[in-house]
């Protein structure tokens, strides 16, 4: 029985009861009816893992006490019963080990961003992907939006001329108080250098913002001059980050992200300017892509219309005016990854331009950016190569 | 094995390859991992039904050539294997027969709006629901939005005083040309009085708009004065509708809907004014509920925040700033219906205020409104009781 | 000395200390440095008139105790000293008498809307304008916005095909309480049938809304079916009005205006739909004109750009991105009227398409609409010819 | 005759036919009927000056061939006939000389920003103001908006706690092409270091942006780390500028301004975040001030409402919903300056908190910022004290 005759079977590592991002991954995986969750090692606490599995209607035999047990046991199951790929949704410091182990056992991996804890781990994962040839997807969710696909196509078309300036921002307010001292699990590991890595705000959301800027513009960041701040007294990692960016070809950019911008929700926004006009996209109004021109009216491109690019249409599910949101963007990564696995299975070509997803190379580049951003601040806000 | 230990099994009637709303129902049913599609009679054409079943990874034995075959066959299967409920997503003239048959066989029904073809059918369905005690849900999708739940709670709280005016509008532009003469399946049945019923625009989207106004305000429409128009030459049903509404207690309202408002997408919007302030919600920005006041700043209430009502929180999946959309609103109806079925199974109480969904009575009332709206125009734009 | 060598001299009737609209007229007249206020009869109370004149730095000899005194006295002054035209900003019941007297003395008139108290007066004023050939301008302010000029040009160009539907709304909330029982002068006369005329909300703001719809579409309303409501208990005139409109050629429209839409400011908004697209303009964002299309991205046309029509450019003062507002729109009427007076004086042609302003015919038509709207409700919400 | 009995008489230096900002100053001065233009030296070309004076209906005897002639001649005229103050609207390199000369002759000065050409001139002007005690106003227009007054009051109230982050941006697109090579007068002097000074984009609009951030937050910038860019090939001055700012008390900020952000109009926007919430204001929607909170709904504060601060009310002219714009903001500076001159004349107190305007000290600080920003870039994007 080939993968084209059935749903893909997913195993999950992390995402126990009460976790935020694990639940989101499951919703995203569910949406299109292409993937079914068949097993999980949801927590390092076996009781909690079991409880989560029960809530998700899994067979008790497929709920594991550890990711090692899961990978090893599943690998022994017959094809068509065992999981087809694994989703890793643990805190950053528990990314590399399960990812590498999964790849070694031939399981494709979909993994929450940032790729892992540090650069050494990132290189190890990348090496394992190259060695095994097994695909790995990274959930830079925001590039899954149809209007971000559209933005990329618009920029790529050259209609704006040479790119001259890129602005990206991502303000949040949820860490304006020291919530890591409360029961807030999300805050707790994200502000802990032992679990999150060497950067807080930049590592968590700055990586999204930089990836967004690079994805839309098609240009990589090559140098940074950063200012990381630990704004809330007693916090161990940066909760606010600003940076001048230099993209390939000397294109300048500015990035501002914050977790202490009190009152902000989750307001990622990107602007790219060329010689004749530019684009603006904001997650607050995700189904709209604004095209700005110096010499004619601005244009409002919308998700689900007949006039948007094939890439935008392929990553949308409903006609114009039926708002799509964060979960649909997230689901695009899962669906595109699933399509890729099916294509590999059937020996068909996967159209990476239309059904693209972020991969391990973007993950490694993202980690290199974390390193450069941290170094720039440590050395006194100086230009630092990535 | 009780319903609490497993996903609910869904059968679908209609929704063959190429259909719009059937695919949307499936996405909505998938999202929360509470429901799995196990069987279907997707088309009156058995080949098309089979093809659809294959694309959905169903077992060929569970793909039926007709809804009768499906209901009868599934009813014979053992509990735990047979479908737990049925979703009906056919054109309006094929609603009543499968719905009544399903109810008679004890299968709960979730059905696309409007409830059915005409008032006689509506009453027959209602009678069958009363007789059998089997639940029926109607997919008035737009009341599934968290901020519509919030709006209802806000109005109900009495903070605006007595309600004085209700405005609801729903402009679309997709029928601005006579697309029913092309291959457009959606347009074709919706503009055909033999399949759609006695009203076009009002029947299709006016029913949504009126339901929205009633749901948010908590007041039923008791009288209407309408003006239905067939704007596009040669069209057999109204494609534009305006109406003065009188709600319970003499509250006035105005409804304007159109399928020929060229350039509009799917722009349902509702405003309710009381003595001290009012609310405004628009699907264009669905995660925002605007509260307006005469004597203090307007307030922007947002999906996913900690300060919204329990009803709004319970019908949302992600934190503030992670936009939820149409599919999530739709999924709320499926999830709430599934919760109700589980509650019946376990003998627990279902909290109809928090996990509500539109039911058969709203469906019958909606059909009565279609009747009244059509009569009002036929008799010369006069006040007509519902 | 011809009018081309100096500012035009304005006299004002009404607009004493504390009046709202009189002060606005003066700001509008001041803005362009084309007009100077030289005299006034600001109140029927001579002391109050004197006080107002002093605050406005007028010579005491030019501050009059009554409009009769002013018109007669000024008419005796030598050209170049006497006022060149008169601005009438009194409540509706004190429009006709001074207007007719001014026209008889050869003074052009600029007058606040609605034109006057009732249809008889309207016809008398119109007859006097025809008889004397002296110009009269009516301050339907909202058509003075550059983007309304643009909208009119866009519709007139035919790019949207035949017009199919017109929606106009004008919700306000300021009369949600019975403020006429307090010291509120504005509320007091506007809700008094002896001073305001036979309609309240419709007469005050419905006339603006209908005029806006007609101006933008280029189509006159020929029939109405209205529902006037006195919502606030004890109020003598309608404070809420809805109407179906029939424009020339059978084009349908809907008008909703209210003074009791609590929380609303002054939210006039117009939408016009044709066969291929439409326009939307809202005073909340007055420098933007939205063009909507069924088959391509919406367009955002903006005040002050190089690409808008000559009419829009000529009625704008600053480059794009320097917001213009209500006072600039109002000032356009004064400036265009002043240009017309100068053109008459110099014998040059006045370009009525670019530098247009509402005139007496629009005023009379507006009064006819008030009549028809009131009759339609009185006779039971029936279609009534204008 | 005291200043309280008449309009103030204004003389203007610069602002000849075709100039942008001179015309704007005149509109702003006209609006409130408090000021009349009586004389001018509109151009260094006497013919052009004469032509401008004629278009403005000035007496030929009061139109001068040079500012020197104007100041000297006017100073000889009797009080009550001579100008009361002078408005300087020339390019930056012709600010200091006429300003100092006017001050020496006892004429108050209102001057376009930036204060002057360089720091030496700035200090000379400041010294002259101190020496003479004659007032000088600087037209940082954007702080004249009522909602900016409101923002300042809101921040000052302490309701957001300690300020933690300030973001200010000002993108424009008008210099995306090398328009200084065309007939564009505005572009020509603004991109010429001999007339504009040592900075282009930062000097022209960065000074506005920094001033806005300081005004709203009540905190001065003490250190900068900048990146100035000459984006358009061949341009002699920066046309794009980014900077990290350090405000008093170590509060961080980010400034991004550009004249080559193609498609942008004039989009100044400021955000200030404290511990519990923040404010956002954008000139695109100038009558709205957004208050954001972490734990309750955002609030939309609006110009012209009864609930805004006395400062906001005093700097507004129309009720809520009648949009005020750029010219009204500009007029507030003129009106407040005029009120100050009247207060001096009458010996009354001038309420600097309600009727404030930017003065010479802000001008000098702004020039110091230009210096620091330029130095920071020249020295390699390093932190530089102001």
How would you characterize this protein structure?
With 386 residues, chain A is of the alpha/beta class. Chain A has 2 domains: 3-138, 3-Layer(aba) Sandwich (Rossmann fold); 147-320 and 364-385, 2-Layer Sandwich (Dihydrodipicolinate Reductase, domain 2). Chain A has helices at 20-30, 46-55, 67-76, 96-104, 119-132, 146-156, 185-190, 193-196, 201-217, 310-314, 326-346, 360-378; strands at residues 8-13, 35-41, 85-88, 109-111, 136-138, 165-171, 221-229, 240-247, 251-258, 269-273, 277-282, 288-293, 298-302, 384-385. In chain A, the strands form 2 sheets. Chain A has a 9-stranded mixed β-sheet with strand order 13-12-11-10-6-9-8-7-14. In chain A, strand 10 (269-273) and strand 11 form a beta hairpin. In chain A, helix 4 packs parallel to helix 5 (119-132). The B-C interface holds B 160, 164-165, 167, 169, 171, 173-174, 176-177, 225, 227, 229, 231, 240, 242, 244, 252, 254, 256, 258, 260-264, 271, 273-278, 291-294, 298, 381, 383 and C 160, 164-165, 167, 169, 171, 173-174, 176-177, 225, 227, 229, 231, 240, 242, 244, 252, 254, 256, 258, 260-264, 271, 273-278, 291-294, 298, 381-383.
């Amino acid at each position: 029985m080939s993968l084209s005759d059935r749903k893909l079977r997913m195993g999950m590592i992390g995402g126990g009861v009460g976790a935020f991002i694990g639940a989101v991954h499951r919703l995203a995986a569910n949406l299109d009816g292409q993937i079914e969750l068949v097993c999980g090692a949801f927590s390092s606490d076996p009781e909690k893992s079991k409880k989560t599995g029960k809530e998700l209607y899994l067979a008790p035999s497929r709920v594991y006490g550890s990711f090692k047990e899961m990978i090893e046991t599943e690998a022994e199951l017959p094809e068509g019963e065992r999981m087809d790929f694994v989703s890793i949704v643990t805190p950053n410091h528990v990314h590399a080990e399960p990812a590498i182990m999964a790849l070694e056992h031939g399981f494709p991996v979909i993994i929450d961003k940032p790729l892992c804890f540090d650069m050494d781990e990132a290189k190890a994962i990348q090496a394992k992907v190259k060695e095994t040839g097994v695909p790995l997807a990274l959930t830079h969710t925001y590039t899954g939006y149809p209007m971000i696909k559209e933005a990329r196509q618009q920029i790529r078309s050259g209609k704006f001329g040479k790119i001259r300036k890129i602005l990206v921002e991502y303000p949040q307010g949820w860490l304006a108080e020291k919530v890591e001292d409360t029961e807030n699990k999300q805050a707790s590991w994200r502000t802990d250098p032992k679990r999150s890595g060497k950067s807080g705000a930049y590592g968590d959301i700055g990586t999204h913002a930089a990836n967004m800027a690079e994805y839309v513009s098609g240009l990589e960041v090559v140098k940074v001059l950063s200012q990381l701040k630990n704004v809330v007294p007693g916090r161990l990692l940066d909760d606010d980050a600003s940076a001048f960016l230099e993209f390939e070809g000397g294109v300048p950019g500015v990035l501002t992200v914050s977790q202490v911008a009190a009152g902000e929700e989750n307001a990622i926004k990107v602007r790219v300017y060329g010689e004749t006009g530019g684009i603006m996209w904001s997650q607050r109004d995700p189904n709209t892509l604004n095209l700005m021109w110096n010499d004619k009216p601005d244009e409002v491109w919308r998700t689900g219309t007949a006039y948007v690019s094939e890439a935008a249409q392929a990553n949308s599910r409903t006609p114009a005016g039926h708002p799509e949101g964060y979960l649909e963007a997230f689901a695009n990564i899962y669906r595109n990854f699933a399509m890729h696995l099916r294509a590999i299975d059937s020996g068909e070509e996967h159209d990476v331009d239309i059904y693209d997803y972020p991969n391990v190379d973007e993950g490694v580049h993202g980690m290199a950016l974390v390193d450069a951003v941290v170094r720039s601040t440590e050395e006194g806000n100086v230009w630092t190569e990535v």
